[in-house]
Amino acid sequence: MGQALSRSESREVAFRLIFAMGNGTLFDKDAWGLALDGKVAPAPEQQYIEQVVNTFVDLREKIDSRISALLQKWTLDRLRQTDLAVLRLAAAEMMIGTVPTPVIINEAVNLAKKYGDAQSGSFVNGLLAKLSE
Predict the structure, then answer these.
(1) What integer pLDDT is reported at residue 28 of this predicted model?
(2) Residue 26 backbone class (left: φ over 0; alpha: ψ -120 to 50; beta: rest)
(3) Is 24 exposed, middle or buried (0-12, 13-18, 19+ CB in 10 A)?
(4) What global pTM score does this model have?
């Protein structure tokens, strides 16, 4: 077995699952295994990941609508898929309300920088700042 996940790593697993769902992959054991990337999710982290992903699944239309309303001259389908997945993750976390918004935004910016392009971090930061108002 691999090492246990930190909260940041758990957030990254949730990001991978939300990204996969955006591309039509279902939230199943195969997707879960790939997203864990050889690591182990202790019960609290597994619950956190499931809560975020299930919140996204349950509120996808509302989340996408809130993100879409903040885009100027853009549509969701024109966004980089990685940026969209980060935004969806952060919006779901904000709706849950157990993590402070500045932490959510900081973690989202880090994911955007890791998986996106040179502008992804500032794009995600600006959009989430508006979303949190």
Answers:
(1) 64
(2) beta
(3) exposed
(4) 0.91
